[in-house]
């Protein structure tokens, strides 16, 4: 399972760090990512990091957000800087997890963590 944390209220221009800890039967985590969903909008990909370290970001967060992962801790992070009001949303972590070498990766979602950017 995935446990997300780190959301909260921050002023425009501020920073937050989200964490996503994976637990359970884990052989390897193929990818970890963050999605967000604002009220009345579709869930969208914010950032993703693959097992080889490759990353991709939504255009709206490039240069402001950084995704990383600590494989030893099975934990992913999203560092959010220069936050804007339009970043306000529920943020969900996502991971594709392989539980054993002979199996297939399964997709998991964490619970949402609310990020509110407001003065």
SS class? mainly beta
Give Rg in angstroms: 14 Å
What proportion of the residues is helical, as a percent range?
under 10%
What is the overall pLDDT average? 94
Order of helices and strands: EEEEEEEEEEE
Major β-sheet annotation: 7 strands, mixed
Shape: elongated
Q: Count of helical segments?
A: 0
Low-confidence stretches: none
Q: How many DSSP-defined strands?
A: 11
End-to-end Cα distance, whole Å, is: 34 Å
| Beta-strand residue percentage | over 45%
List the topology elements:
Elements: E1 2-5, E2 8-10, E3 16-22, E4 28-37, E5 44-50, E6 55-57, E7 65-70, E8 75-80, E9 89-98, E10 106-109, E11 113-117
Parallel strand pairs: 2-11
Antiparallel strand pairs: 1-3, 3-8, 4-5, 4-9, 5-6, 7-8, 9-10, 9-11
Written account of the structure:
The structure is a single chain. The protein is mainly beta. Helix content is 0%, strand content 55%. It has strands at residues 2-5, 8-10, 16-22, 28-37, 44-50, 55-57, 65-70, 75-80, 89-98, 106-109, 113-117. Strands 2, 4, 5, 6, 9, 10 and 11 form a seven-stranded mixed beta sheet that branches. A four-stranded antiparallel beta sheet has the order 1-3-8-7, with no helix packed on it.
Spell out the key features of this protein.
119 residues, mainly beta, four-stranded antiparallel β-sheet, 0% helix, 55% strand
Would you kindly provide a brief summary of this structure?
0% of the residues lie in helices and 55% in strands. The protein is mostly beta strands and 119 residues long.
